[in-house]
Recover the amino acids of this structure.
């Protein structure tokens, strides 16, 4: 008998080969939503996995970030399988998320009608009603080549060929459809409760529930500005023939990594210069630039590079730190647990801030406060700002897109910029790189390089960071006048050298080990790029070090 340490903290005995799905039934009552995945000795595995040795076992329920990804991944597999049955000539490419929906681009320019989608949906519904099983097979690359679709071979198998230390690859089977996925699946389609299919642009949106009731699918709210930036990133990747990790690996193996770095950096410089020109040439005189974006978007480096381009145009950018406008500690709002909530808009003294904005734009000299985090009090240390005729206030902060922050300034006198790392790079047609994963790796490396935090600490705090973004940044992104994508298509290969040792240092007996192992599996698919050729004003330098703006980061 096997000795299995289960989520209740006790050792339970099971026969060798017992499947996790059978053990999960014993613990299902302890979870609010269905168990959809397991963690065995720090590694995420699917529920059909048979236990061969003694181990520590934990479960992941549906209403969690990891559980939701399993749900969406299986839903996508059901969609491409139904599409293969009804319209086998259609080639699907999974591109990006738009709220609680994933966008599937049709690669070969076939236009689907709403009736086509209805047929596909009926096929999906039939498979769901029949609880069609999702099978997993571990096969050699040569065996896999015989099973995957011809159009998948070019994208999947070169990627699998370079994955380090793997002699067999996992393929999933649904009905007669075979596909490779970086992640686990639901055991069968009976777990799927809610979803919607919508025609959107040149493809299909798969809308999915976000919990806790997985039979309820929220209405899709279009974000055309964000969708446009994603589309531009995808087109850029295709234009330079580097839209997948396999393609990036080929650049590296062929000795062309410097070229991909130069192209990526030139694109950033060109777009930043264009934004500076827009500020200079606006028919309304821009006096205030507000920059907002989620964690590790590269806001500081972007702000500095934008300031350089503005000065080139004869403007005088003047940065202001919102930190100096925190309310005094006694007036700071509190969270339910009693701690201070420094992230909410109400933590700022908006009356004072807007008064200062109005006076500076009117040409007055204003005494800028300094907030002491040590004492929780506001001080004045003699700092003043006088905004000249060519002066432009530049403010960076999570609330920059919220109109309440700068309500005293006329809308046409300010420019709102949303920045984020929206990577166009994917593993292949069916496996994308989450933009949040790229930002997490950026933050992990930066925390280690400059903030004396290990990767475990970064992972432990990441969910709180994400909660703040979902509350204070993402709901306002469509209010931006300009969106800037800070991703660099080569950065995945640069971060590998820094992130892998950090992730490997995480103990296997902590809850965060499963997430660390997931990221390590992703990084194994990429070759490394030496960062020697990365210029010192690159956004990447904000995270790995060596930035020309070092004192300001």
């Amino acid at each position: 008998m096997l000795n299995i340490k289960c989520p209740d903290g006790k050792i339970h005995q099971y026969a060798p080969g017992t499947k996790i799905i059978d053990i999960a039934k014993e613990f299902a009552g302890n979870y609010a939503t269905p168990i959809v995945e397991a963690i065995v000795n720090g590694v995420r595995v699917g529920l059909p996995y048979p236990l061969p040795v003694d181990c520590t076992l934990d479960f992941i329920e549906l209403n969690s970030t990891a559980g939701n990804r399993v749900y969406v991944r299986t839903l996508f597999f059901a969609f491409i399988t139904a599409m293969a049955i009804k319209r086998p000539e259609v080639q699907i490419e999974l591109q990006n998320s738009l709220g609680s929906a994933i966008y599937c681009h049709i690669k070969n320019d076939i236009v689907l009608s709403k009736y086509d989608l209805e047929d596909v949906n009926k096929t999906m519904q039939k498979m769901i009603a029949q609880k069609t099983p999702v099978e997993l097979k571990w096969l050699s690359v040569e065996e896999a080549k015989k099973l995957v679709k011809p159009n998948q071979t070019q994208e999947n198998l070169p990627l699998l060929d370079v994955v380090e230390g793997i002699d067999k690859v996992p393929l999933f089977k649904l009905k007669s459809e075979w596909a490779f996925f970086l992640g686990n699946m639901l055991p069968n389609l009976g777990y799927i409760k809610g979803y919607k299919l919508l025609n959107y642009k040149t493809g299909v949106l798969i809308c999915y529930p976000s919990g806790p009731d997985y039979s309820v699918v929220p209405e899709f709210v279009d974000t055309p500005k964000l969708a446009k930036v994603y589309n531009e990133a995808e087109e850029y990747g295709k234009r330079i023939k580097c839209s997948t990790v396999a393609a990036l690996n080929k650049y590296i193996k062929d000795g062309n990594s410097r070229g991909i770095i130069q192209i990526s950096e030139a694109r950033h410089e060109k777009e930043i210069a264009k934004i500076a020109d827009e500020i200079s040439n606006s028919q309304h005189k821009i006096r205030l630039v507000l920059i907002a974006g989620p964690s590790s978007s590269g806001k500081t480096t972007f702000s500095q590079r934008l300031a350089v381009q503005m000065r080139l145009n004869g403007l005088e950018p003047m940065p202001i730190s919102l930190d100096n406008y925190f309310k005094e500690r006694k007036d700071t709002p509190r969270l339910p647990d009693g701690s201070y909530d420094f992230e909410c808009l109400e933590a700022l003294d908006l009356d004072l801030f807007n008064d200062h904005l109005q006076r500076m734009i009117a040409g007055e000299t204003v005494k800028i406060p300094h907030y002491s985090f040590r004492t929780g009090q506001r001080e004045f240390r003699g700092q003043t700002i006088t905004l000249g005729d060519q002066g432009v206030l530049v403010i960076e902060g999570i609330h920059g897109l919220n109109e309440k922050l700068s309500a005293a300034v006329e809308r046409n006198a300010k420019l709102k910029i949303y920045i984020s790392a929206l990577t166009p790079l994917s593993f292949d047609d069916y496996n994308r790189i989450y933009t949040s994963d790229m930002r997490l790796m950026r933050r992990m490396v930066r925390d280690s390089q400059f903030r004396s935090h290990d990767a475990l600490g970064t992972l432990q705090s990441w969910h709180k960071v994400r909660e703040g973004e979902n509350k204070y940044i993402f709901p306002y992104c469509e209010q931006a006048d300009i969106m800037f994508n800070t991703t660099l298509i080569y950065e995945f290969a640069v971060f590998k050298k820094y992130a892998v040792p950090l992730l490997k240092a995480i103990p296997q007996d902590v809850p965060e080990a499963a997430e660390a192992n997931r990221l390590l599996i992703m990084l194994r698919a990429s070759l490394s790029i030496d960062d020697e050729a990365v210029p010192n004003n690159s956004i990447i330098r904000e995270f790995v070090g060596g930035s020309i703006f070092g004192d300001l980061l």
